[in-house]
Amino acid sequence: RSEELTQSEVLARMRESDRELRRRAAEGFTRGLREQGRVLTFIFNTLLQDKSIRDRLRRYSFPEESRHLSNELDNETVETVVSAVEKNAGMVARYYGLKRQILGLDELTHYDRYAPLFAAEEKVDWDEGRRIVIDALKEFSPTVAQRADEFFTGNWIDAEVRPGKRGGAFCSYITPDLHPYVMVNYLNKLDDVMTLAHELGHGVHASLSRDQSYFNFHGTLPLAELASTFAEMLVFEKLQQRASPRDRMALYADKIEGAFATIHRQSVLYRFEQDIHRHRREKGELKSDEFGAYWQQRNQFMFGDSVVLGDDHKLWWSYIPHFINSPFYVYAYSFGELLVMALFQQYKRKGAAFGDEYVTLLRKGGSLSPQELMHSVGIDIKDPAFWQGGLDVLNGMVGEFEKLHGEWKK
Length: 410
Hints:
64% of the residues lie in helices and 2% in strands. It is mainly alpha-helical. A three-stranded mixed sheet has the order 1-3-2, with helices on one face. A hairpin with an 8-residue loop joins strand 2 and strand 3 (181-183). It is globular and about 55 Å long.
C-alpha cells in the first residue's frame, strides 16, 4: 500500500526499527527528489552564481567570508575546527561498525544510520525530572541551578502535551528587560529530561545575559548552543548514575549519534558547500551527477567503510534547506557542539572553580566575539589542542559505549 507523506514524515520513517519500512521510505524519498532533480539542480546552480556575483560586488575574497564575518570568526579558526573533526573521523566508523553488529546486519546502508538500537525504558515524572536537572546543575554551580529553578517557581515553562500544541522544544529569549520562557513536550521519558535540561540551559544563558544591552543580548550563532548543550552534558552524567545497563546504552547511543550528526556531519556539509561553490566559480555549472559525486565523497569520508552509501544517496544533497537559505551556516553546529565538549573537559580538569568562570562567560552574552569571550577564561580557540580535547570527550563516549555493550553481552 502506497501513501503520500511529507518530507518530515518520510524522514521519520527512517528512524523506525522495521528495516523494510526504512528501505521503502528511503526509496520513496529518493524518487521524490529525482522527480524534481532537474529543477533543483538548476536552482542550486543559479543560487551559487548569485552568491558569486554578490560576493564580487561586496569584495569578499572567498565564498565563506561573509558567513565568517557574521559569526565574528576568522577563516583560520574555522579551518582549525573542521580539520580537527576530519582527523578524528575514525571514531565514527568505529561506532557504526559496532552498530551494524548490534543490529545483526551484513552491511549498514544510508537508510540504517538512524535505526534505533535500544529504547530507554525508565519513566521519569515531571517532579522527578525537575529534581534531576536542578541537582545536576547545583553540583556544577549554585548560581546556574538557582536561575534554572526560577523557571519552575515562576511558571515559565509550558511542558504539557495537548491537542493543537506544536511539537519539539524551544526557549524564547524575549528582551533583556523580560524573563525568557521555555516550551517542551514532556512525556516522562529519559529523553525528555535531556530536552528539558537543554532548553533550561538556553534559559539560564538568556537570564544571565540580561545585564547586557538589547544589541549585545544574544551571542553569535556559533555560541548559540553553548549553555544548552553544556546543561545537557551535566544531566547526561546524572542520568548515567541511575540508569539500568540497558538504559545507559540507550542514552549513550542517542548522545553519540546526536554528536556525530552535529559535529562530524555538519563539517561534511560545510566541505560539500566549499566544493560546489568553488566548482561553480572556477568551472561553471554543475551537473546533478557532479553534485552527487562531491556529496558521496564527503559523506563516505566521514563513515569510512562502516556505512555503504548507495546510489540513491547521491541525490540527498538536494533536500537540505541550509544550502539554499543560509550558505555556510552549517559549520556553526560543529563549532558550538565541539566547543561545549572541550569546555566540559576543562570543567573536569578544573573542578568547582570552573563554575564561576562559566557563569561569568554567560553573563557577557554577545558583548564579545567568540575568540574574545573564550580568551576571557583563558582559552585560545585557535589552538588545535583545545578542540582535540572536545573530540577526546566524544571518543571517550564511544569507548564507554563499546565497554557497556561488551558487558551487556556477557
